[in-house]
Design a protein that fits this description.
By secondary structure, the chain is mainly beta. It has one domain. Helices cover 9% and strands 33% of the residues.
Length: 130
């Protein structure tokens, strides 16, 4: 295998191209939660979900994050998506975000959800956080 073949294989296997211009990235937040119960009787159930938000979106007053994930599967699944509220200071230069909404309508029902994101960079000192 030639050096050129190795470079091409590396680009194909990881899907990255080091010749692309780098951009400055901002932070994201992990999140997880459970939807509220929906339906009645034997069909009454909820769903779990987890994911990582988009990078920050600057808005007046600070920033927010977008999110979109699938729930777990209980003979069907839903999408949980939307935009968080503004950052909520939790001290020492750290923050979280709150989000609430309704899942997609599937199997003749939807679910209400609400969650707070996890702390941005929980292990880094505040002066090293973006």
């Amino acid at each position: 295998m030639t050096d050129t073949d190795r470079i091409i294989l590396d680009k194909v296997s990881c899907g990255c191209d080091s010749s692309q211009t780098e951009t400055v990235q901002s932070h994201t937040h992990e999140f997880l939660g459970s939807t509220k119960l929906a339906e009645e009787g034997e069909d009454r159930h909820n769903h779990r979900f987890a994911g990582v938000t988009s990078e920050m979106v600057l808005v007046p007053g600070g920033h927010v994050h977008d999110f979109l994930v699938n729930t777990d599967f209980f003979d069907h699944h839903h999408e949980v998506g939307g935009r968080t509220c503004l950052q909520i200071d939790v001290g020492e230069g750290k923050h979280v975000h709150f989000a609430k909404g309704n899942s997609t309508f599937v199997d003749d029902h939807c679910h209400v959800f609400q969650f707070a994101t996890l702390i941005d960079s929980p292990l880094l000192p505040a002066e090293e956080c973006p």
